[in-house]
Amino acid sequence: MHWIALRPGSEADVDPDALRALAPWALQYTPKVARLQNALLLELSASERLWGGKRALLTQIYTSNKPLAPVKYAQDATSLVAYARLQDSTLARTLPDDLPLHTLAAARPHLATLERLGCNHWGHLRALPRGGVARRFGAPLLAALDRAYGEASDVYPWLTLPEVFEATLELGFHVESAPALLFGARRLLEDLQRWLQLRQRGVLALELRWHMDERRNTATQGQLELRSFEPSGDTAHLLRLAGEQLAQITLPAPVHTLCLRTLETQKLAGDTASLLLEARRPGDGLQQLLERLSARLGAQQVLQLQPCLDHRPEKMQLWQPAVSASQFIAINAANTGARALKALNNSVLYPSWLLATPRPLALHQQQPHHQGPLTLVAGPQRLEAAWWDGSDCALRDYFLARSQQSGLLWIYRERLSGQGIDANADAHWYLHGLFG
Fold this sequence. Notes:
Layout: E1 3-8, H1 16-27, E2 33-36, E3 39-43, H2 54-63, E4 71-76, H3 79-86, H4 111-116, H5 122-127, H6 130-137, H7 139-148, E5 166-175, H8 182-199, E6 201-212, E7 221-232, H9 236-246, E8 255-267, H10 286-297, E9 303-307, E10 317-321, H11 325-333, H12 335-344, E11 353-360, E12 362-364, E13 367-369, E14 375-385, E15 394-403, E16 407-414, E17 429-434
Antiparallel strand pairs: 1-3, 1-4, 2-3, 5-8, 6-7, 6-8, 9-10, 11-17, 12-13, 14-15, 15-16, 16-17
């Protein structure tokens, strides 16, 4: 067995919040992390091979960035010896028999009596008759002594990560500019990324809140919601999104505290089935690029096309914000509808430029005119759509027409008059598209 005991700082009384902040960092090295009074205990023997051996693992633990600094360490083959050595740096190489008795937590309630018996070290206590120790001081003291010497197994309630990530960071100074909050947000996102890796989940939505100086006659809180279509355990993309959005915010008062909380996460699937690192695609994906551009330029400035199941040319497609996950899903999931619409119109020659609103054409001697008379080249292509709702019924005959000045045009004639009878003599003609 290989145990490491650690705690933030060198004081005897450690802030419980400091230990809670240190626990997720410790869990990335081993799932066996327990809390004992003012310290964390890590059992590393099962993780050494994964990290390349004992020396490599210890080097990583000692030199990696930690949420708190400084951190004090001690190690041994048993957890209680490592914890005893953590209490005094001069005990790093002391044998268990020579460790002071006050470093054994189970013996502290009985120190006065044991000192009168001449027991000042672990070895002295171990030399006493076990039956007498059990009757005088209770079985828990003997059980702790057995665990300390490796004669009994350690049993601890192992720490686990919460279901929802939530972290708070008190800034060392008041921040008056929203973009400057990115420094604190980066630290919180680093903790979030560690939580996501340990939980094997990807984040879809999170909330960044900040608390402002209450002495100002303004709002005391502000918030920013970040969303990503693709769940990811890498928070670099979210950090860039936060930077783009914070650059557009003006703070009404200085900020002194930041809070980060996950709103929606999803079980993370592997990016590739290959074990080779070269098989992973470098760089950002298309959706991440769209999200970053939308955060910088505005959602209404980055649009994506969504096909619709409608025969009317002006309603065959919609342009909607590209950051909308539901629309993105609709485009990819409703391919059957798009294919059906394409199959129905595969024989139709549509113009390269469709007018947003059909333009009425003049009619001379029953012939449509646009910068001169138009010659009908092909048609009609008959269209009957939206007859079921009646309010926007389309009953049209489309033609391919030639103009001496404008080239090929796409025009149509309304087939029915207001009385619902055939009235070609009084029919209205419209220009609907141009061929480039």
